[in-house]
Specification:
The complex is a heterotrimer. Chain A is α+β, with helices and mostly antiparallel strands. Chain A has 12 helices and 8 strands. Chain A has helices at about 35-50, 65-70, 75-100, 115-140, 180-185, 210-235, 285-290, 310-325, 335-345, 360-365, 365-375, 390-405, and strands at about 25-35, 55, 165-170, 190-195, 290-295, 295, 375, 380. In chain A, strand 5 (about 290-295) and strand 6 form a beta hairpin. The longest helix of chain A is centred in the N-terminal third of the chain and has 27 residues, at about 75-100. Chain B has a two-stranded antiparallel sheet. A two-stranded antiparallel ribbon of chain B has the order 3-4. Chain C is an all-alpha fold. Chain C is about 70% helix and about 0% strand. Chain C has helices spanning about 5-10, 15-35, 40-65, 80-105, 115-135, 160-200, 200-210, 220-250, 265-290, 300-330, 335-345, 350-360, 370, 375-400, 415-440, 445-450. In chain C, helix 6 (about 160-200) packs across helix 7. The longest helix of chain C is centred in the middle third of the chain and has 38 residues, at about 160-200. In chain C, about 55% of the residues are buried. Classes of the chains: A alpha+beta, B mainly alpha, C mainly alpha. Chains in contact: A-B, A-C, B-C.
């Protein structure tokens, strides 16, 4: 080759491609080299000649070409480090916020903010974010995807991925010269140098309409599930939930307050069956369960309760819990609730249980006392639901003791306990 | 990567000359001075040699681990037909040949065991087998129920037998690889490389077993009720950090004498640095596995070891090791420049060598305080890892440093003794590749 | 006169020789995907794989609509085939990452012939693996709760649980594998794009063109690409360690004897690489034979893999020995019993299968004759995978069948749905792999070219 005009167009496409018109503006030159080594040398020469808008194209990364072309080290590793660090911080924060701050939850006593248990996930988030930075960062820095490049108009360029080693210089480079540049490339050992022009018909550079339509349509479709979710999150519905796999959600059993057509009264609950008693509910012993002895209020205590100091103490304990709020600790009827009423300006007293001058409670037989505790009297409610049977008898025993204690004389106290004691003044009404 | 080769630089100084002998003298001098100093300090301390022996076990484990780490490179290099390490392999072989001397030095704590010394390993103490309650001559309740059955294994006699086995195994292996390598200097016979490759397979198996069991015997049995299956692997990881760090310093030291200046270049230092980085990470991985799994399972027989390292004064040592042995070197050795710029690599090598010692110290010393146990009026020795962790002191002592330096002197002397003749395997077929080695 | 012409005159045979070698690689790999009719063997195996996959689909249907009761799992063997299969598949996937990443970092250039298939195998194995944790929950439609998302119940995942660590580890692993694989594929998809376009096959050209992102082999782009590849390889290495370590934490964080032991993480990783390599070569030994790829996936590469299998097999053996020793050493009654039970309890047969296949079988690889006999290697690789399956089964089922309370001791037998699902995942794996083999570049074309001696042709030294 002695002249610098471009080679004639070959019908089999070895030149500037089948049927591509050369009438468009010149984009650049493409030179092919036989071996990777020659490509590296050519690149070095081109770089030394001061060109900057050039690139080499090869089917694999050629060893040594970065340095020959003067490619600066990429910033990618720094970005990846930052990405990884962000992943670490993110992973740690995620676990701390969810498990230790927003809703701390005791799981087998382990600390909610526990670094050994949090480390594996923090490690994985570090790697994940570093990987994303590396992957997406690389494509972005490489400005890919870029499905079209003017050099693709050259047939040999379309074989770079197979076996071609090309060097391309763009015409817009400051040093580009129509004669000197091809000469430089040829002197470096190019097998051939091709012109590559832009397509004079600009419509071929635009994305085909159907691709645009496809992208828009698929993006719209992809947003549909999110739109449904957003609507569901922000609206109300009176419909019941979906049950995709019902499993045991709908059970054929009947619940006690359910309506049921089967019976005339329309209820599922059939109530107690007449003439029957539940096991353990017979409560045959009149004395113990009702305080009645042959239809009269019993004056003693049930046989099954030995009258021990323990029972007395139990009675005192139960009295103080259940009875003293109204009747007071001393049984005189001025407990916390009457005091509260008085503080509010009212006047109400509970029954004085120990009053000898008005001995309603004193003369009441044990059985009747028991019945009052169980079923109430006037404003007093029945305590049957709260106080088991034996405890009620213990309270009866204690009330009797209270009654005796509040109406005692010095003679009631054994002689050896009497020293240092005086009869208190009779309380004035 | 490329199959480029280079030849040895014509002006390269690769003969050891008098360097080995000089190093031997220096090492011997340091050893003598500091070990004598240690003995004096121990006599002054008057604790019946207990502190001295503990420092000795730590320092012995240190020099043992450096040989283990360095020998790993020799075996691996042969096994996978490695290329980059040929230029430094002879140095590794010379250091591995220190095994016999190391094991001889270790007799300082083995022989007292055989002679009945009770205060070093608790299993050598009679109270380890103490029985609290006998029924018809059979012990119903031992002081340490999970310790009694292994006192046959952990007895001074069997311990010494195994110690000798480990020593013989390492000596035989190191000698074989060293001898064959030197043979190849004369003949250049590629068959020798093949023989070494074939031998490296079984050698790896023996190496793994011996290293693991040596770690179990010398270090793990310091807390004889405790156990961890990964302990041997963790020790090996720490040993390799120490080994590669030591290799970097050894190579630099040799280059400072004007030898091997053309053959070993930043590419090789870069690779040494990569191994330091990789094993720093690997050590942290095994150490974390051990810690996290025993923490999570929360079984008292296992967590006892960590209980005495995470509370009281020892927690600061634990944090120092976490940051110093792992976090700081890990972050900074990631970059290629810290590995290629030799002063930077040297800084990290020294740093890791110090923290490797601290790691071994942390493995052993919490077992130093032996608390008493009282039973029916008699005072027994309950052994290590008992009592209130807040009363377990870290208690650095000057002895730790003097014994450490003394044994490093021993190691240097043994290393120097083997640093003779060619410092590079001059006729190794992979030498050309190693000299031309380039990183991406 | 150009230098190239001078070269052509003085060394006519040298000019274009390098390029011819590169074209040969492109052709040899591309024909697998471009052959108009697929190989008969490929169709036959695909048919079987699809049939197996159909069995799996049916098993999944019954499982999801009826419940976990259709499996053999029951107290106390609550995990059985489900988790065995999960660990087995994940382990198999690890070899791909090892071949891609670790062999890249250690500059083992022979990896370029197998890394693409191995990476694809990783992705398919992880997909199969992921089915098991998903389905074994019983109500897999609630699985999305494992991803932390704002909700009005303040319901967050329990991040301190190893099962959650699994979620993060396996998803990270799947994502990274796919991205790494795809990144490696782009230059080769560009090759396929160009070949399809040259042939006039527009549909394929558009599909490969879209997927290859417009790759044009620019040196400036290769520079960043290679850097990213190195970084991803460097990230994938600790990732592969961490994923199987996290899987091992599922067991090791418990208190069960036989499960709770500190060596599990590296032991599981070694075992994963062991079984993964075995699976890679179970696939590639027949493939290289049927598709004439023996000059790329060379005998030396197969031999190197045998050595890796021997090495990792010995690591697994070392772990067995250490566990045994420490079980005795610990003096823990339950730990000691767990190991005796493995060998002499109800699952003794599984134990001996495991030891036979994992420790004894790989010993054959000491012998060069075996390492160079593809048929034997193929059989041994299958046995190794069987052994590794039984290793996970032994760990899981024997420890669970004999827990602390003898009154609870039980036995486990799989049901047809356990077996059906496992068989189905094998079918899924092979289906995906065969489709990959037919339609994607099965060997990393650009990497092979870069590793050939011709890549340095014409270089000045």
């Amino acid at each position: 080759m002695t002249d610098t005009t471009h080679e004639p167009v070959h019908p089999d496409g070895n030149g500037n491609g089948n049927g591509h018109s050369d009438a468009g503006e010149l984009y650049g030159l493409l030179a092919e080299y036989d071996t990777p080594g020659e490509l590296v040398e050519a690149a070095r020469k081109v770089r030394d000649a001061g060109y900057t808008e050039f690139d080499c194209y090869s089917p694999f990364p050629v060893h040594g070409i970065d340095e020959a072309m003067g490619i600066k080290r990429t910033i990618l590793p720094v970005l990846v480090f930052c990405g990884g660090a962000a992943g670490t911080v993110g992973g740690v924060l995620l676990q701390w916020w969810c498990n230790a701050y927003n809703w701390p939850w005791n799981i087998s006593g382990k600390p909610t903010w526990s670094q050994p248990a949090n480390l594996p996930i923090a490690f994985e988030t570090t790697i994940l974010l570093a990987v994303f930075t590396s992957f997406f960062g690389m494509w972005i820095l490489n400005k890919l995807p870029q499905v079209w490049h003017p050099f693709f108009r050259n047939d040999r360029f379309n074989q770079v991925t197979d076996d071609a080693f090309l060097l391309g210089i763009e015409a817009r480079d400051r040093r580009f010269d129509a004669e000197a540049t091809p000469r430089l490339l040829k002197d470096a050992g190019a097998l051939r140098v091709d012109d590559v022009h832009y397509d004079p018909d600009p419509s071929t550079a635009r994305m085909p309409k159907w691709i645009t339509a496809f992208i828009v349509a698929s993006t719209a479709f992809a947003l549909i599930p999110f739109a449904i979710a957003a609507k569901a999150r922000t609206s109300h519905s009176s419909e019941p939930h979906f049950h995709i796999f019902p499993d045991m959600d709908f059970q054929p059993k009947i619940k006690s307050d359910q309506a049921l057509d089967l019976f005339d009264d329309g209820r599922a609950n059939r109530g107690e069956i007449g003439g029957t008693v539940a096991r353990g509910s017979l409560n045959a012993d009149d004395v113990f369960y009702r305080g009645l002895d042959n239809g009269q209020w019993t004056t003693g205590y049930p046989k099954q309760l030995p009258l021990t100091d323990q029972l007395m103490k139990r009675g005192r304990n139960r009295f103080e819990i259940y009875c003293s709020p109204c009747h007071g600790y001393d049984g005189r009827g001025a407990g916390a609730i009457p005091q509260r009423v008085a503080a509010g300006g009212g006047a109400w007293q509970a029954r004085n249980l120990v009053d000898a001058s008005n001995p309603v409670a004193i003369s009441m037989p044990n059985g009747q006392l028991f019945n009052t505790i169980s079923n109430g009297y006037n404003t007093m409610m029945g305590y049957a639901a709260q106080i088991p049977y034996a405890d009620r008898w213990a309270i009866v025993l204690y009330v009797r003791a209270l009654q005796r204690s509040q109406n005692a004389s010095l003679d009631d106290i054994p002689a050896d306990h009497r020293s240092g004691m005086q009869m208190p003044e009779a309380p004035t009404k | 990567m490329s199959a480029l080769q280079k030849t040895l630089h014509p002006e390269e100084k690769y003969k050891a000359g008098k360097m080995g002998a000089g190093l031997m003298k220096i090492g011997g001098g340091i050893a003598a001075l500091f070990l004598v100093l240690s003995v004096i300090l121990s006599v002054i301390r008057d604790d019946h040699w207990k502190r001295f022996l503990y420092s000795y076990v730590i320092a012995w484990s240190y020099i043992f681990s450096i040989c283990v780490g360095v020998f790993w490179l020799v075996l691996l290099h042969h096994l996978v037909r490695g290329r980059w390490a040929t230029v430094v392999r002879r140095i590794c072989e010379a250091m591995s040949m220190a095994f016999p001397v190391v094991f001889a030095a270790g007799l300082v704590f083995v022989i007292p065991l055989l002679a009945g010394y009770q205060d070093l390993y608790y299993w050598a103490h009679p109270d380890a087998a103490a029985c609290l309650h006998k029924v018809a001559g059979v012990c119903e309740k031992a002081l340490h129920p999970t310790l009694v059955h292994k006192l046959g294994w952990l007895s001074p006699g069997f311990f010494a037998v195994r110690y000798v086995v480990y020593g013989v195994a390492f000596t035989v292996m190191a000698s074989y690889f060293h001898k064959k390598s030197r043979e190849q200097d004369d003949s250049g016979d590629p068959k020798i490389s093949e023989q070494l490759r074939v031998a490296s397979g079984p050698a790896m198996i023996a190496y793994s077993l011996v290293t693991c069991f040596a770690a179990f015997d010398v270090l793990m049995s310091m807390a004889p009720q405790w156990y961890s299956t990964i302990y041997g692997v963790n020790f090996w990881g720490s040993a390799c950090v120490g080994g590669f760090s030591a290799l970097a310093l050894m190579v630099l030291g040799i280059q400072r004498t004007g030898r091997l200046t053309h053959s070993v270049n930043p590419e090789h230092y870069h690779d040494i640095g990569k191994w330091m980085f990789a094993f720093t990470f690997f050590w942290a991985y095994t150490a974390f596995s051990q810690f996290m799994l025993q923490w999570y399972g929360n079984i008292p027989e296992e967590t006892v070891w960590y209980k005495y390292r995470l509370f009281g004064e020892w927690q600061w040592v634990s944090i120092a090791i976490l940051i110093g042995f792992w976090a700081f070197p890990f972050v900074f050795l990631m970059s290629r420049w810290t590995k290629r710029i030799v002063p930077s690599l040297v800084l990290f090598a020294v740093w890791q060598l110090v923290f490797h010692w601290l790691d071994l110290y942390w493995n052993v010393m919490p077992s130093y305080d032996w608390q008493p146990a009282f039973h029916e009026g008699t005072q027994l020795v309950a052994g290590p890892l008992t009592g209130n962790p807040l009363y377990h002191h870290v208690g650095f002592s000057a002895l730790d440093i003097t014994v450490w330096i003394g044994l490093i002197g021993v190691l240097l002397a043994a290393f120097g003794r083997n640093l003779q003749g060619n410092l590079i395997p001059v006729k190794d077929p992979t030498l050309g590749l190693s000299l031309a080695h380039e990183n991406m | 006169m150009s230098t190239a012409d001078a070269t052509a005159e003085s060394h006519p045979e040298a000019a274009g020789k390098a390029r011819e070698a590169f074209r040969a690689i492109t052709r040899d790999v591309a024909w697998v995907a471009e052959a108009p009719k697929p190989h008969k063997a490929w169709v036959a195996v695909l048919g079987i794989a699809l049939a197996l996959f159909a069995v799996g689909i049916y098993s999944i249907y019954v499982l999801v609509t009826t419940g976990i009761g259709v499996w053999g799992n029951s107290n106390t063997v609550d995990w059985a085939w489900d988790i065995t299969n999960f660990v087995w598949w994940i382990g198999i996937g690890h070899a791909g990452t090892l071949i891609s990443a670790v062999l890249f970092l250690t500059r083992q250039t022979w990896r370029v012939s197998i890394n693409r298939s191995a990476e694809a195998m990783t992705i398919f194995a992880v997909m199969c693996a992921g089915l098991f944790p998903l389905l074994h929950t019983g109500r897999p439609w609630f699985a999305w709760w494992m991803i932390p998302h704002p909700n009005d119940m303040q319901m967050w995942p329990q991040f301190r649980s190893p099962l959650m660590w699994d979620v993060f580890a396996v998803s990270t692993y799947a994502t990274t594998s796919i991205l790494f694989w795809f990144m490696g594929l782009v230059p080769d998809l560009a090759t396929f794009r160009d070949r399809s376009a040259a042939r006039g096959d527009t549909i394929r050209a558009i599909i490969y063109g879209a997927l290859s992102l417009g790759w044009r082999g620019s040196a400036r782009q290769w520079h960043r690409y290679e850097r990213a590849y190195l970084i991803l390889a460097g990230l994938a290495t600790p990732l592969v360690f961490s994923v199987h370590s996290v899987v091992s934490f599922d067991f090791a964080t418990s208190q069960l004897p036989g499960w709770h032991t500190t060596i599990f993480p590296p032991y599981f990783v070694a075992g994963a690489i062991f079984s993964g390599f075995a699976m890679v070569f179970t696939l590639l030994i027949p493939a290289r034979h049927l598709f004439n790829l023996k000059h790329i996936i060379k005998d030396e590469h197969v031999e190197a893999a045998c050595k890796i299998m021997l090495g990792t097999g010995m690591m697994v053996g070392l772990a067995y020995a250490t566990e045994f020793f420490i079980a005795w050493y610990s003096g823990n009654l339950f730990e000691g019993f767990a190991f005796i039970n493995r060998a002499f309890g109800p699952f003794w047969w599984a134990y001996f299968l495991m030891v036979g296949c994992n420790v004894i079988v790989p010993q054959a690889f000491w012998f060069k004759k075996v390492r160079r006999a593809p048929v034997i290697i193929f059989v041994l690789c299958i046995l190794i995978n069987v052994g590794m399956w039984f290793e996970r089964f032994v760990i899981i089922a024997t420890s669970l069948a004999r827990t602390f309370l003898p009154a609870q001791w039980s036995y486990y037998s799989p049901t047809r749905y356990d077996i059906g699902l496992f068989v189905g995942t094998i079918g899924l794996f092979f289906t995906l792999f065969l489709l990959f083999f037919r339609y994607a570049p099965v060997i990393a074309i650009s990497e092979v070219k870069g590793a050939m001696p011709e890549a340095h042709a014409g270089k000045k030294h």
